[in-house]
Amino acid sequence: QGAAVTAAAHSSEVVPQKALIQLEGVTKVFETEEVETHALSDVHLSVKPGEWLSIVGPSGSGKTTLLAVLGLLDTASRGTYLLDGKSVLDLSPTERALVRNRHIGFIFQSFNLIGDLSVYENVELPLTYRGMPADERKARVEKALERVGMSHRARHMPGQLSGGQQQRVAVARAVAGDPLILLADEPTGNLDSKNGESVMQLVSELHQGGATLIMVTHDPAQARLGTRTVSLFDGRVVQDERLR
Ligand code: ADP
């Protein structure tokens, strides 16, 4: 028994925490009639569960492209991407959509709620796409709306809500399916400072609850809320700094 205890203690020391995201040599080239743009060049990135990455860099440095590749909205031209240990760059479009829907939550600058669906229906839609039974959908939607403090607005339409409230609903939609990773593109870019702070408070709570977050931001103060800052320039990672 002593040996087993020792082995267990030993293994917890030496087994490295598995990466949730592993990018190796990821390159994305956009080819238009006259020019070839290397939006991403040889990007290597490893993200562990529970990390909160801030992706920073000047306009045109590749932040949006990186988020699109990570979110399986776009594919890389070269390189490998392992999500939870599984290769996801060589999937068919249908398989890619399934993985995206199941494992990735998105929060966009412009909220991207569907205007003619209620708050409740917006949060429910990705779960319906997944084929989740109605009773489980209901439980998850209610829990997610409660988590973001929007239960009392479930029957409202997005147009009846403030920007801050719409972003809270978008956060509920992103987390309702328990995704492996949450991707946020300038989540407070369309909000005034008060609503922006309240949405960032919500994001902090998700982080404290164990979420793995990758957030593009222009705001240096916001970037420092994360656990790590990855700086891009000309499609390359030029700095990768652990903050805590
Ligand atoms: P950022 O989000 O940091 O502003 P982007 O990822 O949007 O940067 O863009 C990186 C580079 O790729 C830029 O030079 C941009 O013009 C180019 N780019 C992005 N998307 C496309 C596209 N669909 N077609 C052609 N070039 C693109």
TrEMBL record:
Keywords from UniProt, A to Z, are: ATP-binding, Nucleotide-binding, Transport
Is the Glycoprotein keyword given for this protein? no
Q: Which InterPro entries match?
A: AAA+_ATPase, ABC_transporter-like_ATP-bd, ABC_transporter-like_CS, ABC_transpr_LolD-like, MacB-like_ATP-bd, P-loop_NTPase
Tell me which positions the record assigns to the signal sequence. Answer: none
In terms of PROSITE patterns, this protein maps to:
ABC_TRANSPORTER_1, ABC_TRANSPORTER_2
The answer to whether the entry has keyword Zinc is: no
Which GO terms label this protein's molecular function in UniProt? ATP binding; ATP hydrolysis activity; transmembrane transporter activity
What CDD domains does this protein map onto? ABC_MJ0796_LolCDE_FtsE
Q: Where is the ABC transporter domain?
A: 21-243
**Which is one Gene Ontology cellular component term of this protein?**
plasma membrane
Q: Which family does it belong to?
A: Belongs to the ABC transporter superfamily. Macrolide exporter (TC 3.A.1.122) family.
Q: What is this protein called?
A: ABC transporter, ATP-binding protein
* Organism of provenance: Hyalangium minutum
